[in-house]
């Protein structure tokens, strides 16, 4: 058997060739050719994996692995081998057959079952893969609500009411005002906020309504403050969670987010007295 690194190198080279086909005139034909080479290599890799699995199963005593460690490795090999035909079919449908594969039928990861396609529509990331995380912060930057969604998350407009209800349950109160981007705007949310007596500073979807609300000092001030939320997300992700998040399994990811939010909030609270002192000195 060849060293596994040889197979990894060969597959990486084919991936690079696949990516480069976008800039070639006969890109579609070359992509199909590269995929056929990938499938051929995958058959060889799968055959080697099956042999290694049987060797480990029958001659584990000759290795340094305990019974539990060997069972874990065998389980991972079998999990990938079981999913491999479906993954190959998925690639065949998309590239050879030139047919769209529904998101619900796609394998996004051999190892993580609870991740989804998240359409962001941004220049640097049209779509990403993972779990949706909702964060809500108050004026000083303390995260007062968060939710990591195991299933595919509802639209932003449906998340607002759920968030406010969680805050009511956790803190026995609701905020005086709510600010968000246009994704959270809907007629139902506007009615709900009005009924609850909460000031609505969510950016309207309608251009005409946006022009009208831009004349309100409270709205513009809160929207300026909302711009800092992107920075808050970056701080939590890069400084407290880790980028990428290395926790495996949804339960572990959820626990990591909980600890990250707690650590972040303690960090913010510890900095508040110093910030107040600096503001006092500047005012004096």
Describe the structure.
The model has no long low-confidence stretch (mean pLDDT 89). It contains eight helices and six strands, in the order H-H-H-E-E-E-E-H-E-H-E-H-H-H. It has helices at 4-20, 27-58, 67-96, 156-171, 187-196, 207-213, 217-241, 250-283; strands at residues 116-122, 125-130, 133-137, 143-148, 177-180, 199-202. With 284 residues, it is mainly alpha-helical. The N and C termini lie far apart (76 Å). The radius of gyration is 25 Å and the shape is elongated. Helix 1 runs antiparallel to helix 2 (27-58) and helix 2 (27-58) packs antiparallel against helix 3 (67-96).
List keywords for this structure.
elongated, 6 strands, two-stranded antiparallel sheet, mainly alpha, two-stranded antiparallel ribbon, 8 helices, 284 residues
Brief description of this entry?
With 284 residues, the protein is mostly helical. The chain contains eight helices and six strands.
The overall pLDDT average reads 89
Structural class: mainly alpha
Strand order across the largest sheet: 1-2
Shape: elongated
Helix content: 55-70%
Q: Can you summarize the main beta sheet?
A: 2 strands, antiparallel
Based on CA atoms alone, the radius of gyration comes out at: 25 Å
Q: What percent strand?
A: 5-15%
- Helix tally equals 8
Please write the string of helix (H) and strand (E) elements. Answer: HHHEEEEHEHEHHH
Poorly predicted runs: none
Strand element count? 6
